[in-house]
Amino acid sequence: MTTAFDPIELGGKRLANRIAMAPMTRSRAYGPGASATELMATYYAQRASAGLIITEGIQPSVVGQGYPDTPGLHSAEQVAAWRQVTDAVHREGGVIFAQLMHTGRIGHPSLLPDGLNPVGPSAVAAKGQVYTHQGPQDFVTPNELAHDEIVRTIADFADAARNAIAAGFDGVELHGANGYLIHQFLAPNANQRTDSWGGDAAGRVRFAVEVATAVAEAIGAHRTGIRISPGTPFNDIAETDPADLEETYTALLAGLAPLDLAYLHVLEGPDQSLTGRLRKDWPGTLVLNPFTHPEPTGHDALDRVQDGAADLIAFGALFLANPDLPRRLASGGPYNEPDRATFYGGDERGYTDYLALPA
User: At a CB cut-off of 8 Å and minimum separation 6, what does 140 contact?
Assistant: First the structure.
């Protein structure tokens, strides 16, 4: 019987266990040019007992940034800065993938240089606000990407993936979830195009498949994962038609499966039956971030590996509060409780501290 504490092969690496650290944006890239810092190296190295670390979202291009002080992987300076992080994790025996996150329409011009504006598949603004250095700001109407700009954006993902490998990462995860650019192309309310990049399900999945294909060709499919969150409403995504949702994600997995990617990472919604259908349709490794709202993912989630629903389980908030989480899970606790009041903030707004908390 397979358990979450058994090793697994992933991307040519032997993971010590099947417990992943989920990607969590921290907004602490205070180094020059939105680059990683020594504090980030300490943070990730402390959590290197995870079978797999997936980093906070990293923008693949300047216009891909949607939050203050998030890191990039589109300059030589950023590549050099990330090396201290990957070296620190590898010294502790860990495996770390960089999550490439283009936020698309989620952002604000004040976060971008040179008069740039957020971009998206269509000129449709998301409802809601984003935090900026000037305080909360309404989302703006994004510039609709022209065909040539879409092609350039795909190349940006591939370039950032090459930069990730140059920086010492073991692979990359493409962020196709939570209402960011890849997810925006998948969702009919954000993607209202009538050309080959939109329209029916086959058109709406094209961008995701072409990004994954380009990245797999750039660094190897064994180093490429992708995260999805079908049916979840983050960042004003509306995937409310069950038939269209099924058709879209069936088409997406059919387009991705021949690439033989390292893994599919599913951020689960309330419908666990959908997870089961994705598991059936996906031929490779499946990482699951289980739906446990309003509680953080806890010890009970490990049963999803044992019952075959997933190959790895991703933990978020509990990993922030417990840097040695695999050890604590193995012994049944005790656990430091995540501070809900601070987890969803940032910096002076109150992000949970990067560094290890006392037992």
Answer: 108, 109, 117, 118, 125
Residues paired with 132 in a beta bridge: 135
Written as six digits, the tokens of 352 are: 């949970």
Cis peptide before 294 (omega within 30 of 0): yes
DSSP string for 117-185:
--EESSS-PPSSEEEETTEEEEPPPPEEPPHHHHHHHHHHHHHHHHHHHHTT-SEEEEEE-TTSHHHHH
Would you call the peptide bond into 23 cis, given omega within 30 degrees of 0 as the criterion? no
Count the Cβ atoms, other than its own, within 10 Å of residue 194. Answer: 9
Question: Residue 358, SS3?
Answer: coil
d(CA 292, CA 269): 9
Contact 108, 141 (CB under 8 A): no
Joined together, the tokens standing for residue 246 give 């099924």
Angle at 30 between CA 215 and CA 154, to 5 degrees: 20
- Spatial CB neighbours of 340, under 8 Å, sequence gap ≥ 6: none
Q: CA nearest 317: which of 350, 285, 287, 295? A: 295
Enumerate the active-site residues: 180
Per-residue pLDDT tens over the stretch 252-261: 999 999 999 9
Write the CB contacts of 260 (distance below 8 Å, at least 6 apart in sequence): 221, 222, 284
**Residue 51 forms beta bridges with which residues?**
none
Q: In terms of residues, how long is the chain? A: 359
Residue 55 tokens read as 């980093």
Rounded CA separation 293/135 (Å)? 28
pLDDT in tens, 260-274: 999 999 999 988 899
Q: Tell me the pLDDT tens digit for each residue of 185-235.
A: 999 999 999 999 999 999 999 999 999 999 999 999 999 999 999 999 999
Rounded distance, CA 267 to CA 297, Å? 12
Residue 299 contacts residue 334 (beta carbons within 8 Å): no
Return d(Cα 116, Cα 110) in angstroms, integer: 9
What sign results for the dihedral spanned by CA atoms 91, 96, 101, 107?
negative
